[in-house]
Design goal:
391 residues; globular; 30% strand; 12 helices; binds P-hydroxybenzoic acid; binds adenosine-5-diphosphoribose; D-Amino Acid Oxidase, Chain A, domain 2; alpha+beta
């Protein structure tokens, strides 16, 4: 099999890249190791930055998002039993975010790709990427019990944090930067309308809590828990009681409870693989970087990477200049490190680390006090949360 761009992985990065290339008249093949049902059911975050919303619209992949997504013009910070709203458009010159689950973005992109696009092979596992330093890199893969080879002009590894593409970058030129946080998130889905019309990020002496949503009838919520927690150890009422405690305010706000339909624990880590390119093999999305979920940046970074790659390839085709392609890793890493910085800052400001001292608590409260009283600090949060325009 032969194609211009071999894409490994049908998460948001690989699926959106295939769409952007198709729209630009560049052919690609997507190889995905899992089956379609698995990819369409995987629960992930659901905050789309302004830039991501714009890209999905330009790509013709936003029809359902525009019908069902919920635009959000702010978030609430909760601490010391107080509430503070961060008004995004007022602080950023009109930028906001959209609440629309990553799973739904993937479903929409899969439907488009199967209706009109290059091949998207499910249950096709990439085994190795070869010839990164040559003009014709190859992906060896297994599909329907048979081994095959995909010959490409370029390979983009969109194969997530456990993928194989990363191995195409030789160990002597790669560097990995990592931080593991000593806690995780217990996440729930519940059949009950959200208790607040915007997301609530709460700092509490018992640990962080986040109130989010999936639709006007489905609540998504998270509790900071020890990293080794088994979700099954938490009873439903125990989860609601703990959310209640951590979200409690001095006014009349109340938490709505309902049947919990899913429970899982997410570990928290930061990870960056540099460089994001070796020869004609490029890494995009989780294959190159992981952020803790507190800033909701994972999906948006994946979108940024593939937009940068697609624009660079189109520029090469149209002008003969490979300057953007050469700059791919540096362009993406600059954005990645800004997202790592923001996610780290949000995470450490809002979570209680094991062994945290009263001094640490006071510093967190001082950071929150600063954000809620100094417009420059609040604007910095709003700008980082809604994201910067893509270059
Ligand atoms: N061959 C083929 N496909 C593979 C292989 C392989 N060897 N290894 C992994 N994959 C597939 C996975 O099954 C998955 O569907 O690659 C895909 C990677 O998708 P994601 O993990 O969703 O990663 P990405 O597209 O970069 O999206 C980033 O996902 O983890 C979240 O928070 C993160 O929202 C962010 C987003
Ligand atoms: C989610 O709704 O899953 C979600 C929202 C905001 C975050 C992380 C996750 O920061």
């Amino acid at each position: 099999m032969r194609t211009t761009v071999g894409i490994i992985g049908a998460g948001p990065a690989g699926l959106l890249l295939a769409r952007l290339l198709h729209n630009a008249g560049i052919d690609s093949v997507v190889l995905e190791t899992r089956d379609r049902a698995y990819v369409e059911q995987r629960q992930r975050a659901g905050i789309l930055e302004q830039g991501t919303v714009d890209v999905l619209r330009e790509a013709g992949a936003a029809a359902r998002m525009d019908r069902e997504g919920i635009p959000h013009d702010g978030i609430e910070l909760r601490f010391d039993r107080r509430r503070h709203r961060v008004d995004f458009p007022a602080l950023t010159g009109g930028r906001s975010v959209m609440v629309y689950a990553q799973t739904e973005v993937c479903k929409d992109l899969i439907a488009l790709q199967l209706a009109a696009g290059g091949p998207l092979l499910f249950e096709a596992e990439a085994l190795a990427v070869e010839g990164a330093g040559t003009e014709q890199p190859r992906v060896r893969f297994r599909h329907q019990g048979r081994e095959d080879v995909l010959e490409c002009d370029y390979v983009v590894g969109c194969d997530g944090s456990w993928g194989v593409a990363r191995k195409a970058v030789p160990a002597d030129v790669s560097r990995v930067f990592e931080r593991t946080y000593p806690y995780g998130w217990l996440g729930i889905l519940a059949d009950v309308p959200p208790s607040h019309d915007e997301l609530v990020y709460a700092r509490h002496d018992r640990g962080f809590a986040l109130l989010s949503m999936r639709s006007p009838t489905v609540t998504r919520a998270y509790l900071q828990v020890p990293a080794d927690t088994d979700a099954a150890d938490w009873g439903d009422e125990e989860i609601w009681d703990e959310l209640d405690r951590r979200l409690e305010t001095d006014d009349a706000w109340t938490l709505k409870r309902g049947p919990i339909t899913a429970k899982s624990v997410t570990p928290m880590r930061s990870h960056v693989h540099e460089p994001m390119r070796h020869g004609r093999v490029f890494l995009a999305g989780d294959a190159a970087h992981i952020v803790p979920p507190t800033g909701a940046k994972g999906l948006n970074l994946a979108v940024g990477d593939v937009v940068t790659f697609a624009r660079a390839l189109v520029e090469l085709r149209d002008t003969g200049s490979d300057a953007r392609l050469e700059a791919y890793s540096a362009t993406c890493l600059r954005r990645v490190w800004q997202a790592e910085r923001f996610s780290y800052a949000m995470t450490t400001m809002l979570h209680r680390a094991p062994g945290a001292t009263p001094f640490d608590d006071r510093i967190q409260l001082a950071q929150l006090d600063r954000i809620t009283t100094a417009r420059s600090a609040e604007a910095d949060l709003a700008e980082s949360y809604t994201g910067f325009p893509l270059d």
